[in-house]
Each structure stands twice: as structure tokens, then as C-alpha cells.
Amino acid sequence: MIQWFKYLAILAVATLSGCASTGGEGNLNGPLTIARQGSFFVNGRDVKSDYLSLLPAYASGGTIAIEQMYVHYQEPVAAKRPPVVFIHGCCLTGKTWESTPDGRMGWDELFVRRGFPTYVVDQVSRGRSAANPSSIVQAKAGKAAPETLPQIFSAAREGAWTIFRFGPEYPKLFPGMQFPVEAQVEFWKQMVPDWLNALPTPNPTVPALSQLAQKLKGTVLISHSQSGIYPFQTAILDRRGIVGIVAIEPGACPSTASDMTPYVGLPILVLWGDYVELSPRWAPRLKSCGEFVVAANRAGAKAQMVMLNDVGMPGASHMLMQDKHSLQIGNWLADWIDRHVTR
Amino acid sequence: MIQWFKYLAILAVATLSGCASTGGEGNLNGPLTIARQGSFFVNGRDVKSDYLSLLPAYASGGTIAIEQMYVHYQEPVAAKRPPVVFIHGCCLTGKTWESTPDGRMGWDELFVRRGFPTYVVDQVSRGRSAANPSSIVQAKAGKAAPETLPQIFSAAREGAWTIFRFGPEYPKLFPGMQFPVEAQVEFWKQMVPDWLNALPTPNPTVPALSQLAQKLKGTVLISHSQSGIYPFQTAILDRRGIVGIVAIEPGACPSTASDMTPYVGLPILVLWGDYVELSPRWAPRLKSCGEFVVAANRAGAKAQMVMLNDVGMPGASHMLMQDKHSLQIGNWLADWIDRHVTR
Description:
homodimer; alpha/beta; 9 helices
């Protein structure tokens, strides 16, 4: 009897996956053919430091590169769609967009299969984008006060549980919530120390995104959470190369009092999952993003705010690109880009 | 005239690339079809800490995962060859094996094109494999002495120049050296802070490699530099899942006095580039690895040490997987595995 139920459940998921792909042309199953792939860095600058090493095997001082941003990409054959750039959020890396904790296809591959050249970054000072260790080495040597240490932090899972809106409090679940919590152990392994607060403002990820957008000659910047404000800041810095902005559950939207000129004519989507109103952290952000969308459109932007609940995909967590219905959501987003963005 | 010379140079490189692929079956040009790709973590453990954040927005304490190892993989269609695992060296990440600084194909793709399921890792506490920030947060809070800070370091380029054997001293070049120094700016961006000395012994990368090897049910562990000793330590820990070891310019080989039992019957290649005898850092390592190969074979291993100069590929730097003749070297290595390793 249990086996039979399991079979029905698998059938249901398979049917859902099938449905999810009907909107686009991509083949979500079978081998994947790519025209090109690789990785590179954008931006970065050289700094000299006397405190790079306390070990005899490595010189104490010299020159290192910092503020470069790691980018990994795949291009589909005969891509007809604009490139997309995926920018992860707090305490995470580009891994966010790769295989889900329960081992399903990530959006990095989904969007390639849907015909988009796909670029996944590690924010500056995170993952494969080098941080600057100098102040730690200097403090360990007793040559600088502990207060000068970088303001780094990790998000403990007990607190992250509510930030990611898996439930109202750790380890309770929201009813119908679609994050694969049975594989949560694999998700927590994705989290890394966050150097955001040790970096200058605007975050060096912003000029790096600008350089990437100009290199790509027309891209949709897709942010998540902490990185939500970066594509907007990138457009303020330089509009060139940006043909659309998708802010998935942004930690912040631009102030309604800020200059809206950079967004004139620009397709903008602010996308939200479920349970947002239930979260003291997220509800105010939802409200202020709604106000931004109104102000941006008044100034001539083509902005839209969408709750996934309203388009038939309830139960989405903050980590919606990894939810059980992540391919359905990703396909909906690919369709949205198809409809709204012209290169 | 200059244009004509440029054309000849391009032709020469194209011819070389063509030659390089004659040894194997792989098509090095055109679109690439892969059966599967993705990423996951192996190993890892939970730790509780009271010092994860000094910021009001994130809880000061709780549980995080550390010592997990990030793995990215691609499987070719109808793979007939054993999986290979690429393990980077000091101060670097898995980026080592991806696109070269001058934008050519990395070994990660070359080996997929040659029919090997290819796994690229970030060592524990490096890149997308999370480090533990607790001792930094604790010291910044004034709750621990600066001496307890992690022993992290970065390799300054002036010193790294000789370690990577680009030349006898910064910024001089060895004659005929094949690293693309004209793109060195892009190479320096690959370097990240190294947490090796802040980790327990054996490095947690070792049990993670063991878990990966067992998962893959038969793999060739391919190390570089700092990670040179890890595959040997992995075999000592547990021989299961290891069908070959390739140590590219290892920082250390096992002592001749150590137990050779784990290597009985195992194909082992220790591979070296050029100018090794000219380096006070590398010459002794070459010598002791030569002694290890003799001792291992006496005990029943199938070990071999190869100087690339002796097989017609002079000019290789320490970063030989990124040298101008990197595809030629990679193809030679793929052929070596074909000839020596049976799954």
C-alpha cells in the first residue's frame, strides 16, 4: 500500500515536471548539448599588504588581487534568448542555483535548457571570489587591535530557518511549504561565512556586475535576497548592458525617494514566495518593494510585482529556486523573461 | 608582416591542438554533449558556536556545518572511462581546472570530452566549501586572544612567482616557459586565502575524498601541489574506490619509511614540469618522490615518475594545467590513464 502511494507520488511529480516545461521550448530530460562553457573573473584590483602570511613557507607581504568576481557560464547551442546572470544571497555562493539539496536539476541548467546563456557568480569576497585576509593576519600577529578584524558572520541554521521561511520558528514548518526539508542537511552545507559587512559601499559586487553586463551586451540580472539591491545599484552606476532586472525576494528595493531615471523603460520583476506576510522580517520588505514598483512605473519603468501564490504556485519558501516545485517556478520565470524582455 | 607572423602563430597553435587530440577519441572542438552535471557536498559535520555573528540581524550563536567538501561534476554520454577527481593546490580553488587565464578550455572540460566523468572539488575550508568563522568572531568580540585566530595566509604574487616556477625570481621568466604570463592578471585573481594550517591533521579533505571515491566506486584521484599527499593519505585511510593516483607536482610524497601496503597493485603517476632542478623549493621534493616511487614499486605498486621534458613537452610550469600546451599535456595524461588504469 505504501509502495503504491509512493508510485502515485512519483507519477504526480513527473506529471508536474512535464507540465512545468510546456511553457517553453527546452527539453528538460536527456543529455544536454552546450555550445560553450567556462569561467572567468570580472573586475578586481591589486593591493599590497605586509600581512599576508605568518608562515615561513610563504612571504609575509606582497601583492594580492581582491574584489574580483568569479563567473561560471554555459551557453546553449543557437541561443536566441538574452543571457541571464544569477546572483546569490546572504551566506551562500553560486551553489544556490546548482543542483538542489535533494539532487534535482538547478536553475543554472534549467535556463541553459530553455535557451538562455547562463552566468552564475560568487559575490565578491565569497566562494571562489577571494576575500582579503590581511586584517586577520595582522591581528593574529599582534600588530592591530581585535576591533579591526573583519565583520564576518555565519547564519546559524536555527535562526536561518525563519529567515528562509521554512516555518514560523525552528524546526516547525509552514503548512504546505515546498522546500525539501528532508534534505536540509545538504542545504546547510551550502552556507559559508559572509564578508558583506567587511566590504566598502556600494558592495564591489555592483561594479563587477556592471562590467559583466557590459561584456554580455544585454543581460537580465537575477538577484536573490541580500543581493536584491545590487542590480538596481548596477543600473544607477551604468545602465549599459542591462535589459531586465529580476529581484527574487529582495532584501531591499530602492527607496521611492531615489532617482528612478535608470529604470525608465526597463522590465523589472519583483518575485515573492509564500508566507511573506507571516514574517516580521519579510513583510515590511514586501510592502516597500510594492511602493517601489508603483514609483518606478510612474517614472516610466515596466515594473511588476508577483506573488507566486497568485500564479498558481503556493508553498514557495525563500529558497524557491530549490523548492520541490523549483522547475515549475523557473519555467514560469523563463516564460516571463520571454514575454517581457527584448534584447 | 606582423599580421602574417600572427597568422603563422595561430596556425601553429591550431596544429598543436589538433596533434594533441590524436591520442584519444575526444572531440575537442564544437558543441559538447553531457549526460548529467551538477554539484553536491561530501562529508561535513555540525558544530555549535556562540560566536557566529556580532550583527543584530543574525543570531549570535547556533549550529553550522563545517568540513564538507564541494564537488562539481559533469558526465559524458556513454562514459567508458573511470571517473577522475581533480584536487587543486595551495591558495587556489577548483577554478584551477576550469578555463585558463587566457581563456582556453580547462582540463575539467577536456576530460569530459575524452570520455571521463569529471569531478572538481574545492578543498575543505576553501571556495564553496565553508570555513568556520567562529574564532574570528570571538576574537573581534574581545572574548578570545588574538593568538587563537586561525592561521590563514595568502600567497603574494611576488613570492608565488618562483613557487609556480614562472621564473627564477619575480618577474623574470625561465627561457621557453609556457605559462601564459601575458594573462597573469587573470591568474592572480584565482588565488584565495588558504585555511590549511587552521585545520586538523589529516586535513578533512582526506576523509571527504575517501567518501567521494567510495561513492564513485572506482576513481582516479588527481592532485596538484599542496594536495599531493591527500590521495595517498586517502588510500591509507581506506583503499575502497581508488583505482589510480596521479600526483601532479606534489608538495610531498609519502615517506619511504611509511606503510606501502595501501599502494599494492595501484597505478600511481607522479608528474613533473620543467625547471624543477633549478628550484630550491621543488628539487628536494622531486628527489624524495623519486625515492617513494622506488619504494612503492618494491612493495608491489605500479608507480611511475614522469618528467614532461622526457615525453616531448618541455617548458611546463608548476601550473601546467593552464600552460599554453595544457591540452597537449592533458591529452597525454588521459592516454596514460587509458593505458594504466582498469576500473
